[in-house]
# Entry
Amino acid sequence: MAEDKLPTRTEDFAEWYNQLVLKADLADYAPVRGCMVVKPYGWALWENITSWLDREFKATGHVNAAFPTLIPMSFFEKEKEHVEGFAPELAVVTHGGGEELEEPLAVRPTSETIIGHMYAKWVKSWRDLPILIVQWGSVLRWELRTKLFLRTTEFYWHEGHTAHAGADEAREEMYRILDIYERFCYEEAAIPVIKGTKSETERFAGAQVTTSIEAMMWDKRALQSGTSHYFGQNFAKAFEIQYLDSSNKLQFCETTSWAISSRIIGAMIMVHSDDQGLVLPPRLAPVQVVIVPIFKKDDEKVKVMEVADRVFKELKATGIRIKMDDRENVSSGFKFNDWEMRGIPVRVEIGPKDVEKGSVALARRDRPGKEGKTFVPQAGLDSAVSGLLTEIQASLLKRATEYRDANIHDPKDYEELKKVVQDGWAFSYWCESRECETKVKEEAKATTRNIPFNQPDTEGTCIVCGKPSKRKVYFARAY
Amino acid sequence: MAEDKLPTRTEDFAEWYNQLVLKADLADYAPVRGCMVVKPYGWALWENITSWLDREFKATGHVNAAFPTLIPMSFFEKEKEHVEGFAPELAVVTHGGGEELEEPLAVRPTSETIIGHMYAKWVKSWRDLPILIVQWGSVLRWELRTKLFLRTTEFYWHEGHTAHAGADEAREEMYRILDIYERFCYEEAAIPVIKGTKSETERFAGAQVTTSIEAMMWDKRALQSGTSHYFGQNFAKAFEIQYLDSSNKLQFCETTSWAISSRIIGAMIMVHSDDQGLVLPPRLAPVQVVIVPIFKKDDEKVKVMEVADRVFKELKATGIRIKMDDRENVSSGFKFNDWEMRGIPVRVEIGPKDVEKGSVALARRDRPGKEGKTFVPQAGLDSAVSGLLTEIQASLLKRATEYRDANIHDPKDYEELKKVVQDGWAFSYWCESRECETKVKEEAKATTRNIPFNQPDTEGTCIVCGKPSKRKVYFARAY
# Structure
């Protein structure tokens, strides 16, 4: 498949994306409406994402556990906003073991309800708190318009659910997690994200505060890339999660929940990739380096493969994730295209001339063509390649940051706002009323992304209605 | 909870098991019929199991991927034996997004069908083979009689699904995996298992050959602890998984599937644990060592904690999974019982006298009481503890092996067979007819476990009907 060209991003961004996901071998359409199969290459990428996050969660005192996939329908009724938010999206099991069930069960769309039920059972005293549990798995939401990784009926994620003895501690937890998410995006995914608070209408169903990280895609639309919610006592009251405090008084817990899902893979594609295919940040790439030995005659093969095998072993020994492409049924050109489509950060080319000269060619994926190609000595190749991987990682983040900053506008009035959000973001004062938010949504198809924690010192006036406003918000069209 | 006593194994083995799972904090009953919540301690144990297996699968060329949780009902119809085996156990989604579905979807009970469907799409040529994919996750089977870890409606597992160009290669894969399972049980779980072939009636629905590893529990019942199946071309024909061979001829693939599930945790409990609670093999224990500092007065506390903190750091630095129990609201006796219930392999006790003498007390969980307690110098404690962990691991396997071997009988006739399987296993010649198998099942409640690969050189006569028989089989009552 990899020999086929993608449409360019400029020609048809949506189609470029869909074809790239398939041709880079990340995922495939499943024979179930709106679902995907995450193929081994895509899953290896997801494993690199999850193992970083899992390590960070554990380092901050969190533990993993597993709650049932099926949730009694009545559980959703217990929190009014939650049921309104999720009831329309549920997949419902009505039959089990050949018989109709007395109470239908929902395939979990998220697990606040069933985890809340268990926490109520487990928590007795302040000594049992905090509970800091993460569940890794998948959830189902009956989406009407689906797109691989970005919006699928079933998707993969972790969901953190914590219960605390006090409001401050719960809010701190929400922010602590958002910081981990931010660090993941900057350090690992090379995606510059903006942390902030969601508006009331954009909040998670049942939350008192929803915070998010927002990223700008290549088409300048926004993608909510992770969320962290503070519920106050909403779920604790709905599920009776109570504890005896140190003076033996019964209190309700304060809870949080938070998630990053497999849509972060979609974000990585839409931020970094190009018309040749996938571009992956080296820290997350399942394969960081591919070696392509180049030869025609048999005597060339012997010499080239000797060097290629040695280089392979040397680089592998330094912990680099590396692959040897010694296929003989396809041309070198085919291999180059193939690995470019799959986004391998560095390609090492070794031909008969390189053997003679004691050198190899290094081609960096983030700068295709001659510009990104250098010839380096075989001696000391391990540090040259490690250095290049670090440079690529930094370069991807820099490029994405510059791109984002160049496309965030400060429109002078509402008319200009409506224009700029067609091809960028607006960062504007907003009175935080639902009316003004709805107006922008209806007239410009842009939503409030978040109210960033970092705000200018000054105050201003709402870009929509002109009323005095304390904080600026990002408006953007979003996925 | 840990201060409560368990019933003894002799008094009530089933109740001992149920209470142990709850009190050792491994799992809890879920508010969904037959489902469990795997609590953080149980999940940490499962993570140690899965990470060993995952490493071995990857080392033998397997990759992970994810297929949908929901499977169209029509897929099950495609393989006749498969639908007969699984249709009665399905949980069925009939509604999604508020509407009745045109075709109901089953929550996966196992994924041969949907994975077969995808393989048919992916495989074109012999160059695409073999496909060696593993999926980690959970599946649902509507079980009527459930028991935590051993038999729950939803359970956790990996399922490997491979497709090959030839029958020999597929059979080799089946055996390669069974060897990995065997090695896992011996080296990690300290459970001596017997590898062999299942009888026709005990085969997986749709398989041509099912191989298993079988373990003996403390109550001498057998537990099938892992299975590896060879399907021949059954699923390839049902789902049209075909490839062009090197002479451009269309051929059907040969496929396998295999699994170990979270019931292996049940096996570890029923093989190793005792009337005080859980006993875990050190290699899989989430916490291998717990330090209990013992003091009464404040000046004692300072001195004891100084040593305890130093010992903690030293042991942790060597990679030992360690926990400090410095709770001040409970007694040392409570702590001892608590950690014994949770099966921590080694307890390090440090009191004021130990501080004076420069020693600590080591208590090994597999030998409770004075017998398992030694006093060792603080100097060189890291190697003493590492050595003890290794010794405990070996000792658990030895004890379980001796116990198993002492309880496998060679009955002289059918009457004796019926007796011995009430409190042990029988290893007897069997003619491999369904009639004799059914007779034993009906009259002695024992099933054939497997026909082991290692057979005596001689032949014999069927223990049931007296006909000449080539191979011996294990008969046992089983979970």
